[in-house]
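Lesson 9: reading folded outputs for more than one chain in a single document. The general rule is that every protein is listed as its sequence immediately followed by its structure tokens, and records are never interleaved. Here is the first one.
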Amino acid sequence: MEQVGHPTPYAERVLDLVERIPPGMVMSYGDIAEYLGEGGPRQVGRVMSTWGGGVPWWRVVHADGTAPPGHERRCLESWGAERTPLRGVRVDMRAARWDGKP
């Protein structure tokens, strides 16, 4: 069952980090967990699927640069608008990965 209500403290930290990813850059689910020093890719994915609609969710991708399943078209549109470096229909992780530093 989907969680409702307010995000957990962990979810708030994930969402705050996602909001700081600059346009044209991305982080993988695992990158976010590693940056925060807690959780893992699945936990980040759960946060994004439950509460991520209000943040630039298209900037969070799988480690291979692919979009979340079912969101490929919308991601490609957003990536194109932000000029995110691509390799075909995937994000070029070498060029677009954000390390969390300003």
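And here is the second record, again sequence then tokens.
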Amino acid sequence: MLNPAEDSPLPARLVSVGAYRPRTCLDNDELARAHALDTSDAWIRQRTGIATRHIASPGESLEFMGARAAERALARAGFTDQGAQAADCILAASMSHLDSSQSLARGISKELGGRHATFDVSAACAGFCVGLELARCLIATRTFRRILVVGAERMSDIVDPHDRTTSVIFADGAGAGLVCAAPEPEIGPAAWGTEGAAGRLLHRSPLAPIAAAPEGPPAYLTMRGPELYRWVMGTVPRAAREALDKAGVHTDDLSAVVLHQANDRMTTALVAALGLPPHVVVSHDVVSSGNTSAASVPLAVDALLADHPDLSGKLALLTGFGAGLTFAAQVVRLP
């Protein structure tokens, strides 16, 4: 006979975050020159709000970047002595992991030098928020004690460098969060879902990148911007309000909002649609980091806390949305 489940679920909290930003940072003019793009700094800023972005070098793999972000999250949580073994599970989210034979989480575990349960989440730009929800549920059932949720992207690998509609937006980096049990709930239930019928609005062919398959069609990411924008504006505010309801809070209770850093114009429009009070601090990390898909939310949280350390311990609304089309939102108490 199987052992019975525990009667009471354990609450979870986001204990710490860590980030890794690639060493190479390009401003708009540098990017345009590097790829002979017919664009300008003024054009890019007007349409996206982006000024700079980080681009990974060959030595900055997804595994490397994800492990460095995870190490920083562990160190900030005070687990320096225990190292990688402080966590017993690694959950990785990415849409630019191209090796289908093994999970990115396994590679991060190997890079850290530890031994963990590992698995990946395929939810594109909503990946980190989906990962937080899964970690919350795994903590609740006492399956694991401490879970590293990692978002890592090399979007420069899957974006056509000569396409100014995508190459000026997407960038590289990694962010991680350590989720542990808590006395009281500090990660609210997620509002999440997928609208598969609209998936072609942001899509990449399942083929390898064109450099690895020169005889086949390009496998770069394609985006139908205006239609995607309308989907976001119709979907994300509803998901955000549902997440607030599930957490039992109102917008007045929030101190910060971290939206997926798609582009700054979209962030501004979503903030207006949510009707946030003036005291709520909104992340605009996309201006300096670009759109890093699954890494964007943890990178933005890391930057927000660096600029506003007083937000530690306060409530924030997190949202992710993108390819799939998948969305997720939840309320968390910031570490």
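What the second record shows: DSSP finds nine helices and 14 strands in the chain.
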